[in-house]
């Protein structure tokens, strides 16, 4: 039986790679990764010498076939992305779907002889890290990934404004101000937690409305990666206490 391990890797701080992830990356036949240079550094840091193969959203059917063949031959593989949990606004979901369809659900002869399982090795994810410190109710939340750049952008923010529960979205340095502006236009009173560079040297947490966070970001460096958490509609403004910047 072969296993496709879906391995979460650090979102900044290398100490966040779990012992189980290390052992898995060190023992599989091959590590499938988005960018061999990025994952190469991670493996090198931990003295792991497992061969790598690039596998990302642009990988064609040939690559997928190669992966399926390796699994069918009984080789364990690990799937990682540049940072965080594969499949979460990252490549991986498609491969997992293909493997599940091909091996776990199929009832053909080969699948029965050489069953392949998909196993998570859980760990860091920026969305979950941000939710864990947001201070908003998280018994229910919605993850909406990145706002689209062009087509569908207005619809995305219109929809965001109508969601009453806690919402988590991703944003890059280049568009953080634009996204905060879209939120401010629609829900100026809604409280946000904006997490910059989580687990890294310049980790900063901004709490306030979109306008307040924009002001705080204007006076500091906005380099880095961001997660925006929007409070549930009912707990925004007037009902909440302190806000500001912490690091
Ligand atoms: N799969 C990853 C995960 O599980 O978090 C997310 C990958 S997605 C391509 C990259 C985005 O995640 C960044 O643009 C940013 O929005 C968010 N992100 C990743 N690392 C982060 C960090 N250290 N601090 C804040 N946001 C981060």
Care to describe what's here?
The protein is α/β, with parallel strands linked by helices and 247 residues long. It has two domains: 120 residues, Tetrapyrrole methylase, N-terminal domain (Cobalt-precorrin-4 Transmethylase, domain 1, 3-Layer(aba) Sandwich); 121 residues, Tetrapyrrole methylase, C-terminal domain (Methyltransferase, Cobalt-precorrin-4 Transmethylase, Domain 2, 2-Layer Sandwich). 35% of the residues lie in helices and 21% in strands. It contains nine helices and eleven strands. The strands form two sheets. A six-stranded mixed β-sheet has the order 6-7-10-8-9-11, sandwiched between helices. Strands 3-2-4-1-5 form a five-stranded parallel β-sheet, sandwiched between helices. Strand 6, helix 7 and strand 7 form a beta-alpha-beta unit. It is elongated and about 55 Å long. The protein starts with a strand and ends with a strand. The site of S-adenosylmethionine (SAM) has 23 residues, from helix 6, strand 7 and strand 10.
